[in-house]
Amino acid sequence: MLLEGQPNSITLNEILENTNNAIIAIDPQGLILYANRAVFNTLKIPVQDLVGQSAIAYFPETGLMRVFENGVAELGQQMILNDTVLLTNRTPIYLHGELVGAVAVFQDITILQNFVDNLVMEHEKTKQLQLTLEVVLNIAYDGLIVVNKEGVVTMTNQAFASFFGKSPKDLIGRPITEIYKNHKFTDVLETGLPVYGYIHDLNGHEIIASRIPIILDGKIVGALGKIVFKNVGELYALTKKVNSLRSELDYYKKTLLQENRSARELLKGKNPHMISLVQTALRVAKSESTVLLRGENGTGKELFAQLLHKESNRWQGPFIKVNCAAVPGNLLESELFGYDEGAFTGARKGGKLGKFELADGGTLFLDEVGDMEMAMQAKLLRVIQEREIERLGSNKTRYIDVRLVAATNRDLEAMIRNQQFREDLYYRLNVVTLTIPPLRERKDDIEALIETFLKKFNLQFSQSVTGITKEALDVLMKHRWPGNIRELENIIERAFNLLDGTEIQLKHLPNYLQILVAAHEKHTFVEGSLENILNGVEKEALIYAMNATNGNKVQAAKALGLSRAGLYKKLFKHQLR
Q: What is the band of 365 on the pLDDT scale with cuts at 50, 70, 90?
């Protein structure tokens, strides 16, 4: 059959052969009368082999035979053939009113089915993302609200809705102008300009918020409102904290950049002996000689060690400190010399560098060297002599280039006599000795030290303390200073935590410093022998000290400048126990 009017005389058979849909036609007995080329793509059987064969044998699920039973077309039916999802239309063929056959058209919808499945999966993912977003929004501390270009709320969270005593679902879908009057928020929909950090009254709450346009493809499609601070007080508190942290950061920067100057500041003063000692330290710093620093706890031995390092030719190298009293004797060797992997049970994988190796090219400060055990002293002596170390678990010798500074508050000479300290090590360490006087012997430096500590803690506490009252200074000048410079620093730091003005006053000093002052003010002169007068004053001071410290004998002894045993002796003497 030719199609009339077509210049190329295309036949109906050619049209059917070139369609992508598979087509078969059967007679009333179910035998295949016709099958086009597209059927081969589904069954992989040549078309000529199908004609005359039973359709049910090749298309068991076709349902074509039902068309002969009821004479009614079946449209849009789905079937699966060779793992291919097909959509089929089954239509009866009538000739002169008689049902003479049926035709089925099959369309492969596998790709379409996959697309639908993917669409369903994407829909599920979208729902999951939406649920996740809702959870995130509701646990967010900041209040959030989103409106579309018409100003209708499309999204919000509980943090925002709680300002109105509502839930998010009560606000979604309502115009923003019905919820609260805020023309500034709706203005962003017109201008497209964001505004950050403006103060606004939200239903009686003074908040700090931001409004940001939502732009898609160059067009404004909505706006986001975000509450940055739920009240202005939060901003003020945060600003204060940031300023405090900035001041503290500035302090540590200055400390790192001016460490040498800091050491000099703390060691400066009017005391002639101290001035001479610092000058000697500056001269010795240029050499490579071992230095032994001696003095009571808290006198500033570590400051001298830092000064010796910073003024030496090794100032760019490391400054490593080891407190020999703080490390147990069985661990001090590994701490100083390091160890190789597997040197002992629990050894770190890959081993560990010792302090001598870490200080290579710089200075090693051995604090409290007098507390080192005798066995360890022998090993230290060898290192000083040979300038070589061996890690624990290793037989490899390593050369080290270290300048040694040692410090102690012990009587090394007495320890040598008692065979507690090696004499040969003593002479190795005692090349240059700097004996630092206690603070009670250089009270003329107290004012200079206080000035230095005021500068330090003004930076650290972000305050502007200008000085100390004469009354408080007099108390400090009369104190015996058993804790030396460290005690003075702690007293000034304590005052910074208590004061509410610009001067440190007597009331800001520790109780133990105020006890004798109060006792002196309370005491009245009683006639009698000198011995009776002194005993009376002593007893009164003991009573006041015990009362002021709530019976704490350690604090009372410290306040009175006594040892604990001495306090007990005097309490027994005056029958105060």
A: very high
